[in-house]
Amino acid sequence: MPTLKFDGTAAQYGTVYSGTLSVYSDYFVAANLIIVNAAPRPDGKRLGAQALALRILGEKAALYNCRLLGFQDTFNDDTGKHFFKGCYIEGTVDFIFGDGRSLYLNTHIHVIPGDRVAMITAQGRQNQNDNGGYSFVHCRVTGTGQIAFLGRAWMPAPRVIFSYTTMSDVVRPEGWSDNFKPQVQKTVFYGEYQCKGPGAKASGRVKYAKALTYGQVQEYTSLDFIEAAKWLLPPPRL
């Protein structure tokens, strides 16, 4: 697999411009590609140490069997409808963030150990009328140590759903964070359905997270969530 590598940081370029690869076009597709931001791991002391591997702003993008490697802010799933299948994404803090409307299928999400607290997603929906949201279907969340939130409320109305996903004990019992802003508990949409593994236990979850029913989850497990019938093509043969 070919590798794209760069070591830009937020201190050098600004967070969203620090990426190894930035996609502004519509109808982008990538397969069998490794995208790495090789900047040093943020240590909590250096300002602007966060660093993107990939940023996607275009509409109708698809990634197949790609690996996104970084630490804080690994992937800026910024805007547009996007599809990911068989991918691997790793990081520490907010390592999938932005306001894309995206379906992640059979994707491996890995929390790199070493931080006291990690956040997998920081979905950027501004209000409940915004159509952004992340849906993780038949995915795998790995790591150890009960350090990770599935999502934190970076913006007032994030929407993130995990369904049919296996979660290791890296996921904290409460599962989700209101980012110390209790007022957003009324506007977030955090849902889970038929997940399994030690990190998926419902007993410790925050009260504002939703245990979805079969009927409720259908909207988020279908390719219709990203209107795929209008644009999505099979991966290129390589």
UniProtKB/TrEMBL annotation:
The domain of life for this entry's organism is Eukaryota
Q: Which InterPro entries match?
A: Pectin_lyas_fold, Pectin_lyase_fold/virulence, Pectinesterase_Asp_AS, Pectinesterase_cat
Identify which residues the record assigns to the active site.
94
One biological process term in Gene Ontology: cell wall modification
Record pathway: Glycan metabolism; pectin degradation; 2-dehydro-3-deoxy-D-gluconate from pectin: step 1/5
For this chain, the family text in UniProt reads: Belongs to the pectinesterase family.
**By what name is this protein known?**
Pectinesterase
User: What are the leading ranks of the lineage?
Assistant: Eukaryota, Viridiplantae, Streptophyta, Embryophyta, Tracheophyta
